[in-house]
Design brief:
- By secondary structure, this protein is mainly alpha-helical.
- It contains 4 helices and no strands.
- Helix 1 packs across helix 4 and helix 2 packs antiparallel against helix 4.
- The chain is rod-shaped, with a radius of gyration of 29 Å.
- The chain starts with 21 loop residues before the first helix and ends in a 7-residue tail after the last helix.
Length: 93
């Protein structure tokens, strides 16, 4: 007697929707995480740029520059770096 076998179903049919690839989901998640981290650092740099000149002025007014010139120089460099990193930050975005 001949047995009747069920035909094997193919998943190559284009009419069947495929779930998104795991690699694609991971890439999207990684891109979102990186964008969030960059945005946070830009925000910190942006907002740090605002009070740093006041801190630098305070060190100059209290003559800290005479006793710790590297500290004042470091604050100036930090202000420049924060201004460069935070210039693209948009608080409303």
């Amino acid at each position: 007697m001949d047995e009747v076998r069920d035909p094997v179903m193919s998943t190559a049919d284009p009419s069947i929707p495929r779930p998104p690839a795991v690699a694609s989901n991971l890439q999207e998640l990684l891109a979102t995480v990186v964008e969030t981290i960059v945005s946070v650092f830009q925000g910190i740099a942006f907002w740090a740029t605002i009070p740093l000149p006041l801190v630098i002025a305070g060190t100059l007014a209290t003559n800290v520059v005479a006793t710790r010139p590297l500290l004042v120089g470091g604050l100036v460099v930090l202000n420049i770096v924060c201004a460069a990193l935070g210039h693209n930050y948009s608080p409303n975005a």
